[in-house]
Fold this protein.
Amino acid sequence: MLSAMRLLLDTDAFCKLAVGGLLRDTVTLLGADLSQCERLPALTYMLRRGSLRKVYGSDACDRLIPLAEALPVVGQPSNVWLDKLTPIEAIDPGEAQIFAVAAEAGLVVVSDDKRALRALKGVADFADALAGRIVVIEAILLGLCNHLGPDSVRRRIQSLAAVDNMVRVCFSAGNPEPRDALLAYYSSLVAELDPLTLWEPGPGG
């Protein structure tokens, strides 16, 4: 487990974990509480009027708005880190802000933007600054299965499985042990994103 510290949540990660009813458990797993989590300023707008409503549905987004509003907004990084990311098309401004703040302040990033992570791995100095501080959804689900039990996670994540292919595959009715599939996804990411070092869940969560 990481020591208690601020967590930076990208929009994809926030939505998937919150829709799946696993956000609070995730934050606890990472050694923090919700008051230590920060989100992008555009999140509440996107939940109200943006594309997230098409992905998750209006009812789900409406339920997430108060939760998002209760979280503090990510601060602004210095140009030292941000300037390394702004020319990269695959890293949008929100992800750039999160990565730069995390690198500058030594914070943890919870991200589900694989396209941005693939681009980040080639940017000078970020792999060292964020070593072990990048937490992907696959690792979180592995950790929660270890901590809460796979059956508990399976029951709670059904709403997310309807809109997320990885979750649907790992927690399908025909798969009695989702951890095997999650580990395969996670291991593939570890290899693909090298030299970025991802956070690794322990056997006990």
